[in-house]
């Protein structure tokens, strides 16, 4: 028996070594420890796969969705019910020691999150005189008070009778659905915002109010008049107050039809918590009761996003990300040596093929191509996105030669199950891949980048608050390029759209050598993604861009051997951190391995950090980790990538050094 087969058998307790004399524990060599770490994570992924083949881990929205759920329940008159009280308990647990709530893990108290949390707790009966509430109230005043708030929180304050509607940003359904400018205006907002914007426009136009008792209100925070809103909003409010709103009934009917249509073949409009919540409020404002099909659909789609915690309380997910979890899990398993005839891979591929979109969505207003993308959620026919489509095409192509050296030593041939006959036919896979590639190519922007949901270009329409237009990004462009490279496309291969995208990616590299995921943020992530993409399309490792990026990654490594992604507030100054984090460390390792520096000390130290921080069950836990989600730069905690990326990094390293790590 070869050395590695013997080691594998020992790890899986398949054999008992003959005449083995038990010795006191000794330090495990790096090669054994590396293999053991990979095996444990692979077993964890296998065990967590759903019976129909997909993976799912929740996106954790933190305090704000909990408060928003309480606002919805209060509007419906259910603030004293069990669900509202569970949300309130979870809110109290998430409160910072100094008062207030953060908007993302590891950040300081955020003004709007703190106002929302404070108001939600007041609604559910928490007294303003308690120590926690006093600390939060003081933190709110320190951050500027309610007068400095904007956006969603003001709408909730108006909805529950705390401020007049004319102190919110007016959203005109006429502007969104006018035959003259409406269709053009609505599609210039980012796709993830449209399902929220339309019901908010209905609420803004109708102004529904649920009055609360004085002890549930926040008059103690409203110590000074709120400032006037923008000139455009003032004009809209003036027109409404003087009944100068032509065709209002017809326009509201169009908005209702739009919302109802976007429930079709989707887990609610946009398949997101906030869009469903505002749709529920809008339907009630339009006069629909709880028994109506529209309100019942909202209730049905909202329930799966609320997760009951074992110790009591709730966690609200802004969205369910099964496609992202599934494609990343498949990639991690393939890099770890799982073959295409492995049952876990077969079932996952079947699930992916069943969830490819087949009908035109909002993107079809600008792009004339047959559907073929994938969405983040289970069902979201109107909003497939380029990142999940690129990842799905990549794993369906199955081109992961890095895992070849680990197939027999780490995974073992006996892991192939007896379900090979369930593998999707070659014709079905080819048809799905061809449709996906055509859709991706058609979604390329004029500047050769890719945006997330739509084809367009940056700043094609002015941003309104967080309602940013979709634009090309490093994350999306690099994901598409890596996917195309895995499918056999090469730079300078005579494919014009690919060569333009490579030039665009090069142009976005900073003078220091890094790429930014979003302006001012995610530099380790952006650099890893760009490096992986350029290498995938056969840009040589001796290229100056590759060398500069690798040098920057090495310079960004921290003293403990890992990396921490620099996250500046609102894209400003870098977040200073003295300790590393597993996921950014995995990105740093993978970027350097892609650049051909597997044997470097930086990679060895990064791998050692990952080995030291892995739990016994094969997972990594990173309390400070959160992913940036376009377009509002909101950062959400996502537990799945905390295992997927470190496993990929260890597997890539093991494959690049022959599996020994030495």
Looking at this protein, list some descriptive labels.
three-stranded antiparallel β-sheet, 662 residues, 26 helices, 2% strand, two-stranded antiparallel ribbon, Glycosyltransferase, mainly alpha
User: Biggest β-sheet: count, sense, barrel?
Assistant: 3 strands, antiparallel
Described by its quaternary structure, the protein is single chain
Q: What is the typical, i.e. mean, pLDDT?
A: 85
Low-confidence segments, ≥5 residues, pLDDT <50?
1-28, 412-421, 458-466, 568-575
CATH fold type of the largest domain: Glycosyltransferase
CATH class of the largest domain: Mainly Alpha
Instruction: State the helix count.
Output: 26
> What percentage of residues falls in helices of 4 or more residues?
40-55%
Helix/strand/pairing category: mainly alpha
CATH architecture of the largest domain: Alpha/alpha barrel
C-alpha termini separation: 22 Å
How much beta, percentage-wise? under 5%
Overall 3D geometry?
Answer: globular
């Amino acid at each position: 028996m070869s050395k590695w087969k013997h080691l594998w058998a020992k790890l899986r307790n398949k054999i008992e070594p003959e005449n083995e004399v038990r010795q006191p524990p000794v330090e495990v060599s790096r090669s054994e420890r590396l293999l053991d770490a990979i095996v444990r994570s692979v077993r964890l992924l296998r065990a967590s796969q759903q019976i129909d083949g997909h993976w799912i881990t929740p996106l954790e929205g933190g305090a704000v969705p909990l408060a928003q759920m309480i606002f919805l329940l209060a509007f419906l008159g259910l603030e004293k019910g069990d669900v509202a009280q569970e949300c309130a308990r979870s809110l109290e647990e998430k409160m910072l020691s100094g008062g207030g709530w953060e908007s993302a893990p590891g950040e300081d108290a955020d003004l709007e999150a703190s106002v929302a949390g404070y108001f939600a707790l007041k609604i559910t009966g928490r007294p303003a005189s308690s120590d926690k509430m006093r600390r939060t109230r003081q933190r709110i005043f320190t951050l500027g008070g309610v007068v400095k708030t904007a956006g969603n929180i003001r709408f909730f304050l108006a909805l529950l009778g705390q401020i007049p509607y004319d102190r919110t940003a007016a959203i005109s359904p006429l502007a969104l659905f006018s035959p003259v400018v409406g269709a053009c205006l609505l599609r210039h907002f980012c796709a993830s915002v449209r399902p929220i914007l339309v019901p908010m426009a209905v609420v803004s136009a109708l102004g529904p109010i649920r009055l609360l008792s004085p002890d549930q209100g926040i008059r103690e925070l409203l110590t000074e008049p709120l400032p006037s809103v923008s000139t455009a909003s003032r004009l809209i409010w003036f027109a409404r107050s003087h009944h100068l709103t032509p065709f209002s009934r017809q326009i509201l009917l169009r908005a209702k039809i739009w919302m109802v249509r976007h429930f079709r073949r989707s887990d609610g409009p946009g398949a997101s918590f906030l869009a469903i919540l505002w749709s529920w409020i809008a339907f009630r404002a339009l006069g629909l009761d709880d028994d109506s099909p529209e309100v019942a659909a909202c209730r049905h789609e909202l329930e799966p996003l609320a997760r009951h915690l074992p110790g009591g309380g709730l966690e609200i997910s802004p969205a369910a990300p099964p496609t992202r979890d599934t494609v990343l899990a498949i990639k991690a398993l393939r890099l770890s040596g799982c073959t295409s005839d492995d049952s876990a891979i077969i079932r996952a591929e079947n699930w992916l093929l069943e969830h490819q979109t087949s009908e035109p969505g909002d993107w079809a207003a600008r792009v004339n191509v047959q559907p073929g993308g994938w969405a983040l959620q289970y069902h979201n026919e109107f909003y497939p996105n380029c990142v999940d489509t690129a990842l799905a095409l990549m794993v369906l192509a199955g081109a992961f030669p890095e895992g070849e050296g680990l197939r027999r030593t780490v995974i073992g041939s006996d892991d192939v199950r007896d379900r090979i006959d369930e593998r999707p036919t070659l014709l079905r896979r080819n048809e799905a891949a061809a449709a996906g590639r055509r859709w991706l190519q058609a979604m390329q922007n004029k500047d050769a980048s890719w945006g997330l949901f739509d084809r367009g270009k940056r700043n094609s329409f002015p941003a309104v608050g967080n309602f940013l237009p979709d634009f090309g990004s490093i994350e999306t462009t690099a994901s598409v390029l890596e996917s195309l490279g895995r499918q056999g496309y090469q730079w300078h291969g005579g494919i014009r759209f690919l060569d333009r995208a490579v030039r665009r990616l090069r142009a976005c590299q900073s003078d220091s050598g890094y790429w930014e995921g979003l302006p001012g943020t995610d530099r380790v992530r952006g650099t890893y993604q760009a490096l992986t993409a350029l290498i995938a399309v056969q840009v040589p490792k001796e290229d100056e861009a590759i060398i500069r990026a690798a040098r920057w990654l090495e310079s960004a490594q921290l003293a403990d051997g890992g990396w921490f992604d620099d996250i500046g507030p609102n894209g400003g100054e870098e977040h200073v951190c003295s300790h590393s984090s597993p996921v950014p460390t995995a990105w740093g390792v993978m970027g350097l391995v892609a650049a051909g520096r597997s044997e470097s000390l930086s990679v060895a130290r990064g791998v050692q950090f990952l080995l030291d921080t892995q739990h016994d069950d094969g997972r990594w836990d990173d309390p400070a980790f959160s992913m940036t989600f376009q377009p509002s730069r909101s950062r959400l905690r996502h537990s799945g990538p905390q295992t997927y990326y470190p496993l990929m990094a260890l597997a890539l390293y093991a494959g690049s050094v022959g599996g020994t790590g030495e």
